[in-house]
């Protein structure tokens, strides 16, 4: 067992558990990134509710939300790290795992700070329905992400996380991966959005997505309607173009915005100590 507050030791154990040969594309990384994002992405800036504090996905209200289908795999992958470092809160573990996974898959270094609490504050609970719906358009994207405090540039940068992982018909109804190498972080998603011809396809379950058959790999790549919208909306498109041609700029902007996502609803003093969680009720301050 590591010493309380030794996040480096936890990072090392998370990095070790990413390799999962039996799972998806052989890595727990993408689903861990999604766990970190869905923990944080319920935040509402106006009412200061939702966000990663409380690790609400341990309970049915949030864990059983259809928007979070499949994320139990991510939580199970992390149990050995929790067992080895029982002092870490789930809220910290899940957000840290997303940051570590991005770094280990070749992405930028994500600034991350600990101190989240597992104490569930009922007055901070988020209703279901705060995460985005992939079938919708630009208005929906802005409604969801402005609520958290993000702007158009940040919406596009965040969406670049779809360089990673895949859709599973039994989880979201959508099917397939966005890029050929879904366990390597890159700006390929933006390049493919612009360079390929995306055609609407209705899956057997009635769900509509966009697809392109890639002859080199003989696989069909996919985009969600919300991904395609980024190329169609006048304010989103210039950012897609920038990130497609400038990988370094994408990495820089992504690191900033993903770090901001993980901090939603967390208030810190000048030393970085969290001021809005109750230590006595399960929080932890370094
Ligand atoms: Fe996403 N995402 N996401 N996404 N996402 C899915 C998978 C993954 C939307 C819908 C879906 C972000 C934004 C959006 C990741 C990261 C991020 C799936 C497939 C759907 C559907 C789930 C499944 O079937 O297993 C929509 C809509 C949006 C939006 O409106 C912008 C953001 C902001 C992130 C982020 O991390 C910053 C990752 C990673 C995955 C792959 C998961 C996996 O299991 O693989």
Description:
It is a single chain. By secondary structure, this protein is mainly alpha-helical. The protein has two domains: 7-131 and 258-281, Peroxidase, domain 1 (Orthogonal Bundle), CATH 1.10.520.10; 138-253, Orthogonal Bundle (Peroxidase, domain 2). Helices cover 41% and strands 7% of the residues. The chain is built from eleven helices and five strands, in the order αααααααββαβββααα. The chain has helices spanning 7-17, 29-40, 60-63, 71-84, 90-104, 138-148, 152-159, 188-195, 225-232, 237-245, 247-262, and strands spanning 166-167, 176-177, 199-202, 208-214, 219-223. The strands form two sheets. A three-stranded antiparallel sheet has the order 3-4-5. It has a two-stranded antiparallel ribbon with strand order 1-2. A hairpin with a 5-residue loop joins β3 and β4 (208-214). α2 crosses α5 and α4 (71-84) packs across α5 (90-104). The longest helix is centred in the last third of the chain and has 16 residues, at 247-262. It is globular and about 50 Å long. Mean pLDDT is 95; it is low at 282-286. It binds ligand DDH. Residues 30-31, 33-34, 37, 70, 132, 134, 141, 158-159, 161-162, 164-168, 171-172, 174, 224, 226, 258 line the site of ligand DDH.
Which key phrases capture this entry?
41% helix, Peroxidase, domain 2, mainly alpha, binds ligand DDH, single chain, Peroxidase, domain 1
């Amino acid at each position: 067992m590591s010493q309380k507050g030794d996040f480096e030791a936890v990072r090392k154990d998370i990095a070790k558990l990413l390799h999962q040969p039996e799972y998806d594309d052989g890595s727990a990384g993408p689903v861990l990134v999604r766990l970190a994002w869905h923990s944080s992405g319920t935040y509402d800036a106006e009412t200061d509710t939702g966000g990663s504090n409380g690790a609400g996905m341990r309970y049915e209200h949030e864990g059983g939300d259809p928007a979070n289908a499949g994320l139990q795999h991510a939580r199970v992958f992390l149990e050995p790290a929790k067992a080895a470092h029982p002092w870490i809160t789930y809220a910290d573990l899940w957000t840290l795992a997303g940051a570590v996974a991005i770094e280990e898959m070749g992405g930028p270094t994500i600034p991350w700070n600990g101190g989240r609490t597992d104490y569930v504050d009922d007055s901070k609970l988020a209703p279901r329905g705060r995460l985005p719906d992939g079938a919708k358009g630009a208005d929906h994207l802005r409604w969801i992400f402005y609520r958290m405090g993000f702007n158009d540039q940040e919406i596009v940068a965040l969406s670049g996380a779809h360089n990673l992982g895949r859709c599973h018909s039994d989880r979201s109804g959508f099917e397939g991966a966005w890029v050929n190498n879904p366990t390597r972080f890159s700006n390929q998603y933006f390049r493919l959005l612009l360079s390929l011809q995306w055609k609407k396809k209705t899956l057997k379950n009635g769900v509509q997505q966009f697809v392109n058959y890639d002859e080199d790999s003989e696989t069909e790549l996919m985009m969600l309607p919300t991904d395609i919208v980024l190329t169609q909306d006048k304010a989103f498109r210039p950012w897609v173009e920038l990130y497609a041609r400038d990988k370094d700029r994408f990495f820089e902007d992504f690191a900033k915005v993903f770090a901001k996502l993980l901090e939603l609803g967390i208030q810190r003093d000048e030393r970085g100590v969290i001021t809005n969680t109750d230590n006595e009720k399960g929080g932890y301050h370094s």
